[in-house]
Amino acid sequence: MKYEYLTESVSIRVETAVRKGATQLRNVDDPTAGVRDRFNELAAEGWEFMQIGDIPVTGQTLKSGAYRVIAIAIFRRQLAD
Q1: Are 36 and 44 in contact (CB under 8 A)?
Q2: Which of 36, 59, 75, 79 could bridge across to 6 with cysteines, CB 3.0–4.6 Å?
């Protein structure tokens, strides 16, 4: 079998309120809804979810040149023979 692969950056944005040293989520019913919806769209197109991995990012892409990690989801679907 032959496959093609797709990678998607995965991020979840939540709003927080910091009050007296405590951080609380606010106005977030389901912070993963966007990711879930996108994964469902890809599944409907025939993409099979494989795994999520962390990709380290450094250098000029960041203002401070600091290190951070981006989550990447990997999908595949079978190519027609």
Answers
A1: no
A2: 75
Q: Which pair of tokens denotes residue 20?
A: 């007296």
> What count of Cα atoms within 13 Å lies in the side-chain half-sphere of residue 33?
5
**Per-residue tokens: 5:** 């692969």
- Asked whether 31 and 60 are in contact (CB, 8 A), the reply is no
C-alpha atoms less than 13 angstroms from C-alpha of 9 in its C-beta half-sphere:
8
66: its two tokens: 């600091």
Q: Which helix (H) or strand (E) holds 72?
A: strand 68-78
Q: Running along the chain, 81 residues long, what does each successive block of 10 average in pLDDT? A: 93 65 59 86 96 83 68 94 76
3-state secondary structure of 31: coil
